Amino acid sequence: MRQLTTLTSALLDPLMAADPVGPRITYYDDATGERIELSTVTLANWAAKTGNLLRDELDAGPGSRVAVLLPPHWQTAAVLFGIWWIGAEVVLTPVADIALCTVDRLPDADDAVGAGEVAVLSLDPFGSPPPTCPSASPITRRRYVCTATRSRPSASRDPHWTAGQWARSLQPPKPRLPHRVSPATTA
Fold first, then answer.
1. pLDDT digit string, tens, across residues 159-178
2. Do 25 and 45 meet the contact criterion of CB atoms below 8 Å apart?
3. What is the DSSP track for the chain?
4. Does 13 have pLDDT greater than 90?
5. pTM above the 0.85 mark?
């Protein structure tokens, strides 16, 4: 049986195999002086957090259309990888199921999703939520998910996993059959 490969695993698996801790993205922000380097492992971790946010909080999955209304930023790259990881589609048109945006792009996000979901990201590298995010749209009464794509390492994850292994770890657990007690053991 052939395993489905996502764009994220197609891009990250070879990098993870070659050098998981070498720098892959270096981001500079001249306005703030911010400089950050992301290794493949760190990029995969942030992508996994984005995938979990989309899947667990926003009910996204394969075929979901996600509008990305974020500025040029290192977290935007991780967001794209997270979207592709769960099999969702990044859209540039104003027709989407979900929008990921910053607070200043909320009106654009509302227009893009109609009755869909909007997640407002802070782009804070330490995981703080947006400081001024409304909980709902005053016009549409849509609930906003205000969050950061926070990355916290998990002790159960091996940093040498391939991106495909990380993606499989995002899958929900298989249902367990109830434990059956044999009549012979209950006497």
1. 444 445 444 444 444 433 44
2. no
3. -PPP--HHHHHHHHHHHH-TTSEEEEEEETTTTEEEEEEHHHHHHHHHHHHHIIIIIH---TT-EEEEE--S-HHHHHHHHHHHHTT-EEE-SS--SEEEE-GGGHHHHHHHHTTSEEEEE---TT-PPPTT--SB-TTT-PBEEEE-------TTS-TT--HHHHHHHTSPPPPPPPP---HHHH-
4. no
5. no
139: amino acid identity, one letter: I
List CB contacts of 148: < 8 A, sequence separation 6 or more: 121, 122, 123, 124, 127, 128, 129, 130
Going from N- to C-terminal start, the domains of the chain cover 7-148+161-167
Which is nearest to 91 in space by CA: 110, 63, 117? 63
- Give the pLDDT of residue 15: 82
The Cα-based distances of 145 to 23, 42, 107, 129, 185 in angstroms read: 31, 24, 15, 10, 50
Least confident span in 2-6, 79-83, 113-117? 2-6
Strand partners, 66: 90, 98
CA 94 to chain centre: 20
Query: Does domain 7-148+161-167 match CATH 1.10.3720.10?
Result: no
